[in-house]
Amino acid sequence: MLGLNKQDTSLFLIVVAMTVLAPFFLNPFPSESSLALFNAGYPDLMQRFVIFGIFAIGFNILFGLTGYLSFGHAAFLGVGSYAAVWIFKLFTYNVIPAIVFSVIVAGAFALFIGYISLRRSGIYFSILTLAFAQMSFALAYSVLSNPNFNLTNGETGLQVYGDDLQIFHRENLPDFPHLFGLSMRANYELEIGSWLFNFSAGYYICAIIMIAAFYLAVRIFRSPFGTMLRAVKSNQTRMYYTGLNARPYTLAAFVVSGMYAGLAGGLMAAVDPLAGAERMQWTASGEVVLMTILGGTGTLIGPILGAGFIKYFENIFSKINDTILHGWFAFLPEGLENLMVAIVHPFIGKGWHLTLGILFMLVIIFLPGGLVEGGQRILNLLRRRNGQKSDADKSAQSTPAE
Amino acid sequence: MGILEVKNVNKRFGGLQALGDVNLSVNERTVHAIIGPNGAGKSTLLNCLIGKLIPDTGSVMFDGQLVLGLKPYEINQMGISRVFQTPEIFGDLTVLENMMIPIFAKRDGSFRLHAFESTLNEGEIIDQAMVLLESLGMADKRTMQSASLSRGDKRRLEIGMCLAQEPRLLLLDEPTAGMARADTNNTIDLLKQIKDERDITITIIEHDMHVVFSLAERITVLAQGSPLVEDTPDNIKGHPKVREAYLGESA
Amino acid sequence: MDSIILQILNGLDKGSAYALIALGLTLIFGTLGVVNFAHGALFMIGAFCAVTLQRILNFSYETIDETKKDFLGNPLKVETPYVESWFGPEMGAGIIEWSVPLAILFCIPVMIAVGFAMERGLIKFFYKRTHADQILVTFGLAIVLQEIIKFYYGANPIPTPAPDALDGVINMGAIIGMDITYPIWRVVYFCFAAVIILGIFAFLQFTTFGMVVRAGMADRETVGILGINIDRRFTIMFGIAAAVAGLAGVMYTPINPPNYHMGMDFLVLSFVVVVVGGMGSLPGAVLAGFILGILESFASTAWATSLLPGINQVIIYLVAIIILLTRPRGLMGRKGVMEE
């Protein structure tokens, strides 16, 4: 279907089902129950899932296929956000032109940075991209925000003000980013028993775009172009002595992944019309690296899983506090309860980054293939336990599934 | 006029004269071997032919065109393929994919943004790759990851990948180095078969005299960066200068 | 003329910090072949050694001074640091005041221990993995270390002043008849850095140990074949590199109050320094550190910023990009290092 083989088609349908039904299965607990804490089905968080999913899918096209580790991808995300907000300020709150413009601007920016950075490879490439991103951050944070030429509005962040031009804005349109009148904030709440489900326009618009972005990524992975990119990662010497010029291939991959980042940045501005320089900082670039690797580098579904995983637990961990912990460990004798709370305390709340850092190290050390590899190992283990030897043989022979 | 003409090539590395006034002419559709003791400059010469090194002076012509200064992929697209001492293949890719890539390179040139076509729809390319794999006896290994192949199979695959481009000149750099006897003989048979079946010129650098004398029609002996003699295998065998070069080294 | 000299001086202290961190990065890269993204964290841990020592020295016990009253009329509680009761009030106060220089002694064993633990516990498993994996795992470690520091010391910068005697300014120009006032501590920092850098070079140049390490940096395999246990020496080098980064951090605290993310801030710039200097070249790292520090200082002058607004923010990256593109091996890089 859609030019995909059977396996990819089913993977694609799973992703579609997951994103469309997310409002349901992300809210499995009744809204009044004590477990409601673990619900993730509200618009703001779901939007973050899909937007960072797009970002990671794009990053994976570069890193997963060609092996070039960029430490500056957040620059494209930030540029995309700024571009979108400028469209909001000058022309219209309609998200379509804003998103298109952010993709174009990020693509052009990626072409420029990629053209220079890709003259070097390996760690030099990583450091060049890092230097470019830090430079962009410095430019956005202070340099491009002076009274004569204010492109980024510096520390405050770029936002839409009442006296902005907005040439095509009309009275009857929402005063917020919208899709032909449908506000990104529009939300429909469905109550079934004690469950509450949110259906947000913003989420579904982002979700549809992510599905399209995912489909495109699958096509790229399965195209001759994708094979060439994997060849770049595998052996550049053979590539050159087979009459192939690796650089335009990597540059194309770099630009495509920069455009994905710009798309994610544009969507971020679309759900919240604000663009700040901190979005471009290198810690933000590090985050997308973490997502991709945590999920599974070079796999199709990995980046989406990684993005969802990190954003979900970031949200949960920051909500847990000592009171909740005391509740959980209440069944223990008091001394032990306090001890357990004291042990867990550094990892929750503001300690989420500590947890993330440890998790990330563990993944790199023990599970370089990320969650996808973990899942496969568990599956293989289960199959072996069931004694279905033939199945295990089959899975060992087939190329790593997604 | 040979298909490959090397004229007065010099190459220095610091104080070392790696190549001194090398002249070489390789005739079309022959197997030409370049032999010589260690450090004679064989690999340097080869690297000058394929664009990895640029000679200080002199010229390299392929089929009447100047090769010097071109990028490796440009030289390859002119019709020169190279087999490396340690097989250079795409280890992360399957055997079939390895075989498809040079066919793509032949059809599409050094770069093409075919990002939205499906590899599965490239029936013609897959068929060509399969025909080659079958002729190499590797068709049943097509889904294997090529890094897990045996050394001998990696060599076969690499030679096959070069043939897939239908090159006019095939350069081989010690193709049997580090191989077991059986693998070496297999490789010799494969190269003989290629020589008989294809319209191709082969230049081979080799240490193993067994390989050289089974294949070569002409031999150039290189010593200390310069050609010593060039002749047919029979004449080379008893040549006093050649003995001197080799014995001088081993003594 | 005066202002030019002043800018050069201003660049020296930051340049010293860059040079020290870059030196450590290069030592680790040259010996172990590992790209250590956690090196900035070592710099930060060094700085927090100074904070810790300051806190330890300030451990106090409470006494009630009946002769004085606080504003509510209760007897005044007086906190007396233990050191003051042990060494007498004056000596004790002196020790507390000199906590930053004293932290040097405290920092060296701590940093060497941290370095050994890091190398034996984590880095050694990554010798055979790709550079990308090395970058990623040390990046993860850097996050963990900085979050631990943040957990125990909070997110705000912690002031750690220099001793009063070294806290003022001196007129550097007096000798040559010019008027250049300059903070004393920065002079101290530069001299300290110079001593360490010279010490490292002397160590590598004149000791047998250093000779083996240099040989190992040039050609690891051959040295290994000679039957020399190169790994153990490299572990020791890692400890030394960690100690150098730590010392750079300790002495930097009076210039810039330490916070948990200072390591990351310096790391990015130090990597740029290493690359500009030439990956694997020790003199290159030092030279590039000072050059970039001074360039940054010049770019921060009012004249430069009025000409090109914000040039001070981007100059280092700009220079790095230009150098990498025109001299791919950096200023003093060797052929064949990190070129695949």
Word description of this protein:
The complex is a heterotrimer of chains A (402), B (251) and C (340). By secondary structure, chain A is mostly helical. Chain A has helices spanning 6-20, 22-25, 43-66, 74-90, 95-117, 122-143, 201-221, 224-234, 236-240, 246-271, 282-295, 302-319, 322-328, 334-344, 352-366, 370-385, 389-397; strands at residues 145-146, 149-150, 158-159, 178-179, 182-183, 187-192, 195-200, 274-275. Chain A is globular, with a radius of gyration of 23 Å. With 251 residues, chain B is α/β, with parallel strands linked by helices. The mean pLDDT of chain B is 88. In chain C, 68% of the residues lie in helices and 7% in strands. Chain C has helices at 2-32, 39-57, 82-87, 89-97, 99-121, 131-153, 184-206, 208-218, 220-225, 230-252, 262-277, 282-299, 302-307, 311-326; strands spanning 60-69, 75-81, 169-171, 181-183. Chain C has a two-stranded antiparallel ribbon with strand order 1-2. Chain C has a two-stranded antiparallel ribbon with strand order 3-4. Chain C is globular.
SSE layout:
The complex is a heterotrimer of chains A (402), B (251) and C (340).
Chain A lengths: L5 H15 L1 H4 L17 H24 L7 H17 L4 H23 L4 H22 L1 E2 L2 E2 L7 E2 L18 E2 L2 E2 L3 E6 L2 E6 H21 L2 H11 L1 H5 L5 H26 L2 E2 L6 H14 L6 H18 L2 H7 L5 H11 L7 H15 L3 H16 L3 H9 L5
Chain B lengths: L3 E10 L2 E11 L4 E5 L6 H8 L7 E6 L2 E2 L5 H7 L1 E4 L11 H14 L14 H14 L14 H14 L4 E5 L7 H17 L3 E5 L3 H7 L2 E6 L2 E6 L1 H5 L2 H11 L1
Parallel strand pairs in B: 3-8, 3-9, 6-7, 7-8
Antiparallel strand pairs in B: 1-2, 1-4, 4-5, 9-10
Chain C lengths: L1 H31 L6 H19 L2 E10 L5 E7 H6 L1 H9 L1 H23 L9 H23 L15 E3 L9 E3 H23 L1 H11 L1 H6 L4 H23 L9 H16 L4 H18 L2 H6 L3 H16 L14
Antiparallel strand pairs in C: 1-2, 3-4
Helix pairs in contact in C: 1-7, 1-10, 1-11, 1-12, 2-5, 2-6, 2-10, 2-11, 5-10, 7-8, 7-10, 8-10, 11-12, 11-14, 12-14
